[in-house]
Amino acid sequence: MRTAAFLASFLLCTQTLPSAFALDIPAERHIGGFAVGTQAYTFREFTAMEAIERTAKAGGRVIEFYPGQRFSPEKPDLRWDHDATEEMIKAIEAQLEKFDVMAVNYGVVRIPNDETAARKIFDFGRRLGVRAITTESEDSIDLIEKLVREYDISVAYHNHPRRANNPDYRTWDPNHLRTVLEGRDKRIGSCADTGHWMRSGVDPLEALRILNGRIISLHLKDRADPQEEDVIYGTGIGQIGKVLEELRRQKFSGHISVEYEANWLDSVPDVAECIGFIRGYGTAKGWTK
Hints:
The chain is α/β, with parallel strands linked by helices. It has helices at about 5-15, 50-55, 85-100, 115-130, 140-150, 175-180, 195-200, 205-210, 240-250, 270-285, and strands at about 30, 35-40, 60-65, 70, 80, 100-105, 130-135, 155-160, 190-195, 215-220, 220-225, 230, 255-260. It has a single domain, classed as TIM Barrel (Alpha-Beta Barrel), CATH 3.20.20. Helix content is about 35%, strand content about 15%. Helix 4 links the parallel strand 6 (about 100-105) and strand 7. Helix 1 (about 5-15) crosses helix 8 and helix 4 packs parallel to helix 5.
């Protein structure tokens, strides 16, 4: 990181800013002091309906959907996204209720700089009752800000890894994202993918501090090697405990999605252990009181 980034990080770290995002995720959805569940991409080999069930089996209490997942075992040709029919939405809602899982986010989704098309995504989010939408559409930020204010739905900018063949992609860099967010509505912030930061050579703790007060959600990952598959929380170099402590320092009120990109066909036990780490760490710290 550049010297200026360190200085910015230091200045931000000298104060504890309250979270700008009153996402109103009920306390009963919290585990170890955080609203915890999964990003449905964890279960990409299964359908959206199965992802809800698997989230519940792993102990998750919230879920973040992504566009394009197969809908159900009975209707695998249908895709779950913001073009879903009312019948599909009602079936998802019934499945969420059955397994006591709350939909809190939708993405990563392209939000086009076209108001009619963008409204379709926000209408879908409002219909599901999500608190946030995740995107990387920096070019649409003016329109996004308008719709965030109108719908009172947050938008979180997700970071994929640095792209050597595309220097124009800069969302991976927390310093760049901080600049993008400067002066914008406080409901626009970061979906912090800690694994992708590691792949980009970025220290997740430093990145969180640079984005102090603008973290809306996380795709939380641990890895034994930045370029390898995910591992169970606490067994890698992702500093998961310190990440949780930093989130508490920031008075983070969003949600943590376990996005576990390994053991694709049988990851429920691994995801359960990740959730168990958060539960145990938070309990030991007294965050559940």
